[in-house]
Amino acid sequence: MIAFDPTPEQDALRARIETFVMDKIAPYEKDPRNTAHGPTEELRIELNGLARDAGLFTPHVPERWGGMGLDHVSMAIAFEACGLSPLGPIAMHCAAPDEGNMNLLDKVATEAQKERWLKPFAAGDFRSCFSMTEPWGAGADPSAMKTKARYDGDDFVVNGIKWLITGAKGAGFTIIFCDVEADGDKPGGPTMLISDMDAPGIELSRELDTLDSSFTNGHWEVTFNDLRIPAQNVLGEVGEGFRYVQVRLAPARLTHCMRWLGGTVRAQRIALDYARKREAFGKPIGRHGEIGAMLAENEMELQQCRLMVWWACALLDKGEHGRHESSMVKTSVSEALFRVADRCVQVLGGMGVTGDTVVEQIFRETRAFRIYDGPSEVHKWAISRRIMKNG
């Protein structure tokens, strides 16, 4: 039996985070350091300090590494509250790609790797990036990966280009998804390697102008040119990369849903407030049937999204959740949240397409969400393959 009523402790956590985000973090949305390419490193560090002082840093990280150690349902509630501002996840150090990388390191890394990277990473000493997507190769289809690694003594030498690498500028390290070439009795196949970002052979080739603007230092194209990585920096085992991708991506799809759910809740609140105050044809616009219906549809879809996320998180906490459930939730929620954000823009009218409210940014962010972590069409294809097999 899955209960959908938050506990008193979860309600208190939600209220605490919501108050923190709206009172302390949301005012920074107009800070000049919050740029078209996301918040700067300086702003990120300042916001981290506020969250740390409030005792709301890394809610997803096990207590062993200094986090709050929340279960997945509690995380869903906390992440929705922190997502009320695009800067909330940055402040609480639970934004992508960092949150997913922390989870991956905690589950797959060796103890030495955890001490070397996870411990200072979880403390906020630096950020990370995840180098998987390629301009003409791996992305929605990781099997098309063109980035290669070859053996050279006790090292791997990596060559290739990655693209849309979130937060690459200023990151402390990266996890690289590449194809290792087998050599004699040495195994090959899809593999994850860890490298410091200041290592020789890593070049930030190009900063990308993108629709969204909520990730620290934006998105980059990264070139690996004879990047040398020691064998002890293999994450997990050589050839097991596809398995570890699912370890990372299945829960990360859900945390994306949690954060952007918070954003669209904020957009709905702004639209509701506007609809109560703005008058047209003799009454508040929310009293007109067309506008009222859009706001009602938003309320229904927001609650449906919340219940889907909580359902998937409850399964995760029971150890029963897999990538197919996360595909269904990510697809349904991303499409629904975009509809909600779109209606909020429409309710606001001319104001909705300006930067006078955060709704314009939330609309852009939710549009990008339909592509990140797998476009809806790829998830639907994967779901259809599964259900066709079960017939």
Task: Describe the overall structure.
With 391 residues, this protein is α+β, with helices and mostly antiparallel strands. It has three domains: 8-95, Butyryl-Coa Dehydrogenase, subunit A, domain 1, CATH 1.10.540.10; 128-239, Butyryl-CoA Dehydrogenase, subunit A, domain 2, CATH 2.40.110; 242-389, Up-down Bundle (Butyryl-CoA Dehydrogenase, subunit A, domain 3), CATH 1.20.140. 48% of the residues lie in helices and 17% in strands. It is built from eleven helices and twelve strands. The protein has helices spanning 8-25, 41-53, 72-82, 88-91, 98-108, 111-122, 241-277, 289-317, 323-348, 359-369, 376-389, and strands at 34-35, 38-39, 128-131, 148-152, 155-166, 173-180, 189-196, 202-208, 219-230, 234-235, 279-280, 283-284. The strands form three sheets. Strands 3, 4, 5, 6, 7, 8, 9 and 10 form an eight-stranded mixed beta sheet that branches. The longest helix is centred in the middle third of the chain and has 37 residues, at 241-277. The mean pLDDT is 95.
